[in-house]
Amino acid sequence: QQLSQVFDGYQQAVIGLGRLRSLMRTPAGTPPADDPRPVGALRGEVEFDEVSFGYAGGGGQEVLHGLSLRVAPGETVALVGATGAGKSTVVKLLARFHDPTAGTVRVDGQDLRDLDLTGYRRRLGLVPQEAHLFSGTVRDAIAYGRPDATDAEVEAAARAVGAHEMIAGLRLGYLQPVGERGRGLSAGQRQLLALARAELVDPDLLLLDEATASLDLATERRVAAATDALSRRRTTVVVAHRLTTAARADRVVVLDAGTVVETGTHTSLLAARGTYHRLWEAFRQTGGPAVADGPTTHPTTDALVKENAG
Question: Does residue 59 have a pLDDT over 80?
Answer without folding.
Answer: no
